[in-house]
Amino acid sequence: MVLFQEILDRMKICAIIPSFNVAKTIGDIVSGVKQMGIDAVVVDDGSSDGTAEIARKSQAIVLRNNVNKGKGASLRLGFDFAISNGYEAVITMDGDGQHSLRDLPKFTLALEDNKADVIIGSRMFNPRSMPFIRWLTNKVMSLVISFISRQEVSDSQSGFRLIKARCLKALKFKSNRFEIESEIILEAANNGFKVASIPVSSIYINSESRINPLLDTFRFIKFILPYLLFEKGL
């Protein structure tokens, strides 16, 4: 069986961590990522609480938006950096502690068993700690994304995922906010890339989500309409 470290020795991978006012958690996350031998790239999205400074002290590569632009804009900045610096794959994760560092090796190990270009960390295999409204919203969104992409996607809104650089180089993203999670899947599928899922932990204890179920569902519907119309040939 191929070991986690063996994969890192032959593949250049970084973790892109879009962050907004997460000074309390970002230091431990960066330290944990680096201890595993993965470069940490923190994209500070106009934070006012010292997030960038703490990330830098923890030895992260820090990119910064001078004003808050949204998760999508931050990820796009991180993707451009990764491509320009020769990374062969990126792992995206949040800076608020909702993604378990213990799950990181699962993504690289999945590369050995799976020919996918996008590997999504799905919380829906064991969603017991997920608030019901988020579970329901995610379930509906994932069914829609699966239908349009014609690939099974159990957790389309998970921001914990691995994306190969060859996929990122071929795609152009436009989303500035949380729609980026869906856009990555749909653009990858539309361009012939394979999407797969692996189980990850669902962590919500003492975490305050910036996702507004009603507002973000509306944004999702507005974003998804062109894809649905294209699917129906309209």
Describe the structure.
The chain has 234 residues and is of the alpha/beta class. It contains nine helices and seven strands; from the N terminus they run αβαβαβαβαβαβααβα. 45% of the residues lie in helices and 16% in strands. Strand 2, helix 3 and strand 3 form a beta-alpha-beta unit. The radius of gyration is 17 Å and the shape is globular. The model has no long low-confidence stretch (mean pLDDT 88).
Weakly predicted, low-confidence segments: none
Rg of Cα set = 17 Å
Major sheet strand order: 3-2-1-4-6-5-7
Work out the helix count: 9
Summarize the structure.
By secondary structure, the chain is α/β, with parallel strands linked by helices. The chain has helices at 4-10, 23-35, 51-57, 71-84, 104-113, 132-149, 165-170, 180-190, 213-231, and strands spanning 13-19, 39-45, 61-65, 89-92, 118-122, 161-164, 195-199. Strand 1, helix 2 (23-35) and strand 2 (39-45) form a beta-alpha-beta unit.
Primary descriptors:
globular, alpha/beta, 234 residues, 45% helix
Question: What is the topology?
Answer:
Layout: H1 4-10, E1 13-19, H2 23-35, E2 39-45, H3 51-57, E3 61-65, H4 71-84, E4 89-92, H5 104-113, E5 118-122, H6 132-149, E6 161-164, H7 165-170, H8 180-190, E7 195-199, H9 213-231
Parallel strand pairs: 1-2, 1-4, 2-3, 5-7
Antiparallel strand pairs: 4-6, 5-6
